[in-house]
Amino acid sequence: MLVVDDNSPDGTGQIAEDLKGNWGNRLQVLHRAGKLGLGTAYIQGFRYALEKEADIIGQMDADFSHSPQKIVELLNTLQNCDVAIGSRYIPGGSVDKRWAFWRKGLSAFGNFYARTILNLPIRDVTGGFRFWRSEGLARLPLRRVRSNGYVFQVEMAYLAHKFGLRFNEVPIHFFERKWGKSKMSFGIQLEAAVKVWLLLWQYRDL
Predict the structure, then answer these.
(1) 89/171 Cα distance (integer angstroms)
(2) What is d(CA 199, CA 125) in angstroms, rounded to the nearest whole number?
(3) pLDDT at 56 over 60
(4) Would you call 71 exposed, middle or buried from its count of C-beta atoms within 10 A (0-12, 13-18, 19+)?
(5) Cβ–Cβ < 8 Å for 148, 154
(6) Euclidean distance between CA atoms 60 and 129, whole angstroms
(7) Sheet of 130-133, strand order
């Protein structure tokens, strides 16, 4: 397990370091100087795992929005594809009933918007519960990834599609977070809407 900590003010980095005493080499922690962004944290984590020659690289939220019980099913699915995606928007998938109506609508529309513009064969393009075969992830030019917010997941899906990686989606239930607050704002939503179009230009040569 790899924890990438952006000097979180809630003490996440130190808690992870303390846990290493019980887990040994099974837990690694990357400490970064400050809030450098979601996208760069993922890219640094991906590169670390590839350098360590991991066979499979998984990513998931650390606030229990993603159920660890689904990991085995995603790993089994990965036997027949390059990327296994935990999906809220295929039959059997769902989101927390406690979500406000506007939030459910925004999430569903955001997925429809991105996958339509980018012509992606994926129902859930914004979710972050994914498992990658390392040989597939290693094919992607991670140095070109520019998104550093919520659209990062969209960019990775689009890049993987452009490079011919095979996807399979597994239905999941997306739980409301148990701790912390969402950082989603209107400004972030507007930025994501614009950046989806920019991806078409950014990868026009592929």
Answers:
(1) 7
(2) 14
(3) yes
(4) middle
(5) no
(6) 5
(7) 56-59, 130-133, 83-87, 167-171
Helices in the chain by DSSP H: which ranges?
Answer: 12-23, 38-51, 71-77, 101-118, 134-138, 152-162, 186-202
Question: Residue 110: which of 121, 126, 94, 95 has the closest Cα?
Answer: 126
**So where are the chain's domains?**
55-202
User: How many residues are listed for the chain in this entry?
Assistant: 206
pLDDT in tens, 81-133: 999 999 999 999 998 888 778 778 888 888 999 999 999 999 999 999 999 99
**Can you give the pTM of this predicted structure?**
0.90
Residue 98 has a pLDDT of 81
Question: CB burial class (10 A; 0-12, 13-18, 19+) of residue 184?
Answer: middle
pLDDT tens, position by position, 5-44: 888 888 888 999 999 888 878 899 999 887 778 899 999 9
Residue 141: pLDDT band by 50, 70, 90 thresholds? very high
Mean pLDDT of the region 178-198: 67
- On the CB side of 100, CA atoms within 13 Å amount to 3
Cα 115 → chain centroid: 16
Q: CA triplet 143, 202, 46: central angle to 5 degrees?
A: 25
